[in-house]
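User: I've been going back and forth on whether these two constructs are worth ordering. Before I decide, could you fold them both?

Assistant: Sure. I'll take them in the order you sent them. The first construct and its structure tokens:
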Amino acid sequence: MRWLILVVWIVGCLAVGGLGGWWTAPEIPGWYRSLAKPSFNPPSWIFGPVWTTLYILMAIAAWRVTESADSSARTIGLGLFVVQLGLNLAWSWIFFHRHAIGSAAIEVAVLWVAIGATTVVFGRVSAGAAWLMAPYWAWVTFASILTATIWRLNPRVG
């Protein structure tokens, strides 16, 4: 049963990534390519492997917390995890589907705080789970800077 729960977390996280990718992919060759981007903008091909890895690490973190002893920190941490996963998905919809770069910049800041809160609470339950969230938090830090910079470079877009 333990491994089935891990599979459920992995499938759930990858499904969020897949839905976000469904909104993102059609916008890359046209709209996104037309935007002014900073010199530190990574090539498009890097996002798929990075996000896939991050979603798997996130799922393992959630699984580790799920498998821990019942506690209020576990319950709060898993609730925060689901909230930040929803915010993660919302960013793709806001930025790529709606082309609302300013709103996406604000939303990713909220996401960053939610990831931080999740990581801190996960750390109270499982230090390993918190460390598994660290690369995700670091990447979203970079994504926040990138989003804000794209917004600054494209003030008329959104």
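The second construct, handled the same way:
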Amino acid sequence: MPRPSATDYYVFYNNYVETAKGDSVAELLINYSALLNDFVTNLPEAKADYSYAAGKWTVKELLQHMIDAERIFSYRALRIARKDTTPLPGFDENSYAANADVSSKTFQSLKEEFVAVRQSTDLLLQSFSEEQLQQVGTTSNHSITVNAICFIIFGHILHHKRILEERYL
């Protein structure tokens, strides 16, 4: 299945879709799965509680956000792929972050959780047929295809990888 078209998702997600380079979900898996896991597992322990400015998330909080968002995006993809037509709500990333309490987690445990979630997501995305990738559902009151969600998943992580590289490391 080719890259999603602009009509396959809400414009809010355009940056994420454009950031994920590849012509198919299979290419995204090849291009990014190992790269993203390697990047996260090699984040320096000394930066775990670092925030580049007052009021900004720490590296641990950002990593938790990436984990939470990937779980939500994957859940949306699964529901829509299985032809569940129930409209799915949005989520408030700041509320999730405020209630995640990463202070009780080690940096290593967050890295391991990220890798586990990524592996689970990759297996889910690999399982989707062409027909399932074309399924259309509703999230945050907007139409979206499963294929677009796959690109958003990778684009979202790549977006935060770039922020980590530019502002945290």
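Notes on the second construct follow. Residues 59-81 form the longest helix (23 residues). The first strand starts at residue 136 and ends at 139.
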